[in-house]
Amino acid sequence: MRSPKRTDRASDTARLLPAVASMALALVVVGASLGAIAVSSGAPLWLVTVMAALVFAGGSEFLVVGLATAGAAPLTVLLGGWLLNARHLPYGLAMGDVLDGGLGRRLLGSHLLVDEAVAFALAESEPRRRRRAYWVAGTTLYAVWAPSVLLGGLLGRGLGDPQLFGLDAALPAGLLTLVLPAVRDRPTARAVLLGCLLAVLTVPLLDEGLAVLVALLGTAAALLPVPGARRGAYVSEGEAV
Amino acid sequence: MTLGLVLALAAGTYAMRAAGPLLRGRLRVSERGRWLLSVAAVTLLAAFVAVSACYESGSFAGWPRVIGVLVGGVLAWRRAPFVVVVLVAAGVTAGLRAL
């Protein structure tokens, strides 16, 4: 896949298209089920559609629909949603190189910062391709999200279960496909393993959003010298793939 | 569910999204710092995958989903195309549920 420098923007986009399209398709079904669930639990469809366009973070939107329509206090719902979305802060710091350029680009690009766009960017090792992957994935996914929520709400209850067709496994599996090539060196692998372990073990004790943030502690494992590992084995910006 | 709640959630989420890119425009980050930020993002993303593979609103999501994602992960590791990974993961999960 390491073609010479002559690749232009168009061929970069064409290369990304099948993966981005299948991710988008999975999001369409998830969005549609969010719309259907919202309508069937009595939330106004226009408001859920506005939320999809303005918040653009699926997990927190399901949380709002679920909690708010069950009569939870607005402050509880809000804190839960913020906490679930707090991972975007470290994402944003890591995407600083991708979102360079003018203030306008940074402000616009920030709104496209979702797990999937970050994953597409991190799966690339070269800066230009990284940027391209982020923008192609981000704009595509943004373009389909709110319309599919609206469509799902209009079509109604029949779509209400994202577990139908095993779609709840499709999104994590898709993200995993993108995460694996980003694990380029041993320190990263150690950080990822420790982080996942910490997050999965702490979910029963903490809020789900907080448990994901606990994984950041795993990053420390990338810095530790490991007994038995040869000294100087540290690879910065490993391009060893 | 009110417009006020939606706007507050949107504003907070956008602030957390934009903070990084805006800060990075002002700060000089060393090569090692950049590498570490990227390790942190990969770790966070992987943890998000692990948590969403195992849990559904705070409780265990059930083996069909976990096994589906794991099978997808093995395929991804063997460099299967993205579309294949996603379809097989969904298919395995749906199949196990139908049993």
TrEMBL record, chain A:
Q: Which InterPro entries match?
A: Brnchd-chn_aa_trnsp_permease (IPR011606)
The residue ranges crossing the membrane are 20-42, 62-84, 133-156, 162-180, 192-217
* Primary localisation category: membrane
Q: Is this entry keyworded Transmembrane? A: yes
**What is an example of a Pfam family matching this protein?**
AzlC
**One of the record's GO cellular component terms:** plasma membrane
> In its UniProt record, which GO terms are filed under biological process?
L-valine transmembrane transport
Leader peptide range in chain numbering: none
What's this protein's family per the entry?
Belongs to the AzlC family.
Q: What is this protein called?
A: 4-azaleucine resistance probable transporter AzlC
From TrEMBL, chain B:
Instruction: Supply the alphabetized keyword list.
Output: Membrane, Transmembrane, Transmembrane helix
Note the InterPro entries from the entry: Brnchd-chn_aa_trnsp_AzlD
- Positions of transmembrane segments: 33-55, 67-92
User: Origin, by domain of life?
Assistant: Bacteria
Q: What is this protein called?
A: Branched-chain amino acid transport protein
